[in-house]
Structures are given as C-alpha cells and as structure tokens.
Specification:
Layout: H1 8-31, H2 62-115
C-alpha cells in the first residue's frame, strides 16, 4: 500500500493522539490511587464537610444534556471554520458559497433549538 506523502502528517498526528490516550489511561490505572474495599469512614463520600444528601444516581434534567450536545455541535462548527479561514483565498467564490451553506444549516439548527425552547432556562 503506497500512501501519498500528504497523508503522512495526518497519520503521524493520529498516531500521537492514540498513543497519548493509551499512555494516559494506562498511567492513571497503574499510578493512580487504589481504593480499598470495605465500608470504612475513609471511603465514604465527603464534600467540604457537608453531609451527603440524597443519592448520586439522581437523574439530571434533560436540559443539562441538551446544553452539552449544543455546545459540542457549535464548538465543532468553529473547528470547521479554521481551515476555511486559513485558505479562504484559494477556495474562491465556490468555497465562500459552501461555507455560506454550512453556516445556513447551523443557523437553521440554532433557530430550531431556540423555537423548541431549549435555551429557556426558566422552564
């Protein structure tokens, strides 16, 4: 399999990213603190001296997850703008129209979310 030279930096970056994740996970597993089994006071939940209230499995409002998804969605939109900003002269009018369509789709999604009430925090 003969890859073009332009793929080498992409593969190198992907390899470094995968290696970083693997080293981080393995390092946390082997170097991190080990919890002892048992019901001792030391292993109980503690938050700034305030007694624990309720159960940790209490369901969150769907607004929390919707906000997280919206953040990721619009954050990724910004990531796609970077290559365009770097090469906007090379893309010309065709690239400009493609980015305009890209932004229009995201604006439609934003207005849909807005009209559905996802951004009303009081409800």
């Amino acid at each position: 399999m003969n890859l073009p030279e332009s793929y080498i930096p992409i593969l190198l970056q992907a390899g470094v990213a995968i290696a970083f994740v693997a080293v981080s996970l393995l390092g946390a597993h082997f170097l991190g603190p080990k919890q002892k089994k048992g019901d001792s006071v030391k292993n109980q939940s503690w938050e700034c001296g305030v007694p624990v209230e309720g159960n940790a499995r209490t369901p969150f409002s769907i607004k929390y997850f919707l906000t997280a998804v919206l953040f990721v969605l619009f954050d990724i939109e910004i990531v796609f703008f970077y290559p365009y900003a770097v090469n906007f002269r090379e893309f010309g009018m065709e690239g400009f129209l493609a980015v305009l369509m890209f932004v229009a789709i995201f604006f439609m999604a934003f207005f849909y979310v807005w009209k559905r009430g996802a951004l009303d925090w009081d409800k």
